[in-house]
Specification:
Length: about 550
């Protein structure tokens, strides 16, 4: 999934490290969620607020802004660092009970959960919210349930098929049961998605529901102007006792969208007026602000540093020459200069060199490997040697990339790759493709180039959503929207994916995902380049802006401006 904020877009531990400052450093007054209420939080975003319907949001962990409105069966644990990579119960009493080899998942709802009008939330409301996400009138949500639920592939939503999904059972008001067509040990992670937010059927207005969706979270909508602004105020029927993971400190949250990221960062630095209480959920720190960071810098105390699990990489299309020859792929892997790529993406503060497809995060199952050691700046002589032995000296290839640098796979990174390959005697012709259509072109086998710059981010912190779309042969889509760009289909790898999916122990699954990544890495189907690092500024009055390990950014549900 491309990392984007998708409203524009997806038991309390009082720790001294969740702090009185912003980024987790201890101060004289530890942050206390019991006394953090008050004030207006300003959110300055570049992404437009295109949808506010939980069925149409592609967010895991409830997203950031969506999580203020919508509670789901489970949610992210909302803790700093690695502890924040696990799911936690939200509307449900626990993470679900698997049976039938993880083909059936049963959830029981809490007794103290209500909508913004005080109406109790029932299992039927959760089921209806999920069924809406299948409606063609409401596109855009995560696609997993259509594949996972038994008999759901052709379901068209409750407007066309009001009988609903037989694979979701609600034997009583507090119980909901999911019947899956295959084992899925990651179901508690998927249950964090906004498609699992309850929707009262009587309040549903189809495509117009997003104009004023019914809240189940700590805030409700006061006003919403699509692609422009969103104002949230307190939901009077929400209680901290029923929802201890969300602190809901500000009384009011005002979101402005469509801003230039440079303007956002400058406003956060200056902190004039309401901007002293401001944050952003999608404008990472720019070059000008990065230059101001360092030991002793006043700005350093207003920076949140995290890592969203994401990888930038070169994707080969082995159906095209010369990339059908694994020796060519290996030679180019030796030739890559990762230091120049890191610098092209903004430096070590925002990018880290990677030799593995899985980013260096334990929750994903990361296992270090480097089968084609390029060192920090490339091994061009080794690349030349391999190419000569393979009969490919003087090679000329094309490299596709986005036509701007906004997503980290644009002209700057392409030029760095071009120069590295030049040192190995390979001529690279750059092919710029409009960012708006890049995925359409590269994700369709008929138009896919032989080599392209790509980005992959996890829908949740597990190796499955990282490796399955890119290397599972059953995920190849010839009509378009394909992510398995190597068009790699190995029955043994597919079988191992199925075996790992059946595991309900995240630690056991992580170890297997890491081993599978290392196994596939030997084939040089991709060249990992870098992993993402996230640096976000926040206003001088903002407290507890602590990044979690799930998304690498601070959580609006835990921030204070008082």
């Amino acid at each position: 999934m491309r990392r984007s904020v998708s409203v524009g877009l997806v038991v309390v531990l009082l720790l001294a490290g969740c702090d009185g400052g912003g980024d987790g450093g201890t101060t004289s007054a530890p942050f206390d969620p019991a006394t953090c209420q008050g004030g207006t939080l300003t959110v300055l975003n570049q992404g437009g607020i295109t949808h506010l319907d939980p069925a149409r949001l592609y967010t895991s962990g409830g997203g950031n802004i969506p999580s203020l409105l919508f509670r789901t069966l489970t949610t992210r644990n909302r803790l700093p660092g690695e502890a924040g990579t696990t799911p936690a119960p939200d509307l449900a009493t626990d993470l679900g009970t698997p049976s039938d080899g993880a083909r059936t998942w049963t959830y029981h709802l809490r007794d103290d959960i209500v909508f913004e009008d005080g109406t109790p939330i029932t299992a039927a409301d959760v089921k209806y919210g999920i069924e809406r996400s299948f409606a063609p009138e409401l596109p855009g949500g995560a696609p997993y349930l259509r594949d996972w639920l038994t008999g759901a592939a052709g379901y068209q939503g409750p407007y066309k098929q009001p009988e609903g999904l037989a694979a979701i059972e609600t034997p009583d008001e507090k119980t909901i049961v999911f019947k899956l067509r295959k084992p899925e040990g990651d179901f508690p992670y998927l249950a964090t998605a906004t498609q699992f937010a309850p929707v009262p059927k009587a309040k549903d207005r189809g495509a117009d529901y997003e104009n004023h969706p019914v809240s189940s979270g700590p805030y409700r909508v006061e006003s919403y102007a699509k692609k422009k602004s969103l104002v949230l105020v307190r939901n009077p029927h929400w209680s901290w006792q029923s929802d201890p993971l969300r602190y809901a400190c500000p009384d009011r949250i005002e979101v402005t969208a469509g801003l230039d990221p440079a303007v956002i960062n400058q406003r956060l630095v200056t902190g004039a007026g309401p901007d002293a209480n401001a944050v952003t959920t999608d404008a990472v720190v720019g070059p000008e602000q990065l230059a101001q960071l360092g030991a002793g810098s006043a700005l350093d105390g207003r920076v949140s540093r995290g890592e969203f699990p994401a990888t930038y990489y070169l994707a080969f299309n082995p159906t095209k020459k010369p990339f059908d020859d694994p020796r060519v792929r290996e030679a180019l892997a030796y030739a890559i200069n990762r230091t120049s790529v890191v610098n092209a993406q903004g430096g070590t503060a925002v990018s880290g060199a990677s030799t593995t497809f899985l980013p260096p995060q334990p929750a994903l199952g990361y296992q270090p490997y480097d089968y084609f050691p390029a060192g920090a700046t490339g091994a061009p002589e080794q690349a030349r040697k391999i190419l000569a032995e393979a009969g490919h000296s003087g090679l000329t290839i094309e490299l596709a990339h986005e036509n701007d640098d906004a997503n980290g796979i644009g002209p700057k990174v392409a030029a760095a790759v071009q120069e590295a390959f030049k040192q190995a005697g390979v001529t690279v012709d750059l092919v710029a493709i409009d960012s708006a259509t890049y995925r359409d072109v590269t994700g369709k086998p008929a138009t896919q180039p032989g080599l392209s710059l790509q980005y992959w981010g996890a829908d949740w912190p597990s190796g499955g959503p990282f490796l399955i779309p890119v290397f599972d042969g059953r995920q190849i889509i010839t009509a378009g929207g394909n992510f398995n760009l190597a068009q790699y289909d190995d029955p043994a790898v597919n079988a191992e994916i199925d075996a790992i999916n059946a595991l309900t122990d995240p630690s056991a699954a992580a170890a297997r995902w890491g081993a599978l990544d290392a196994r596939i890495g030997k084939l040089a189907l991709v060249i990992p380049l870098t992993h993402e690092k996230d640096v976000y500024l926040y206003g001088r009055n903002v407290r507890n802006a602590v990044p979690d390990g799930w998304r690498g950014q601070y959580d609006l549900a835990r921030i204070s401006v008082k």
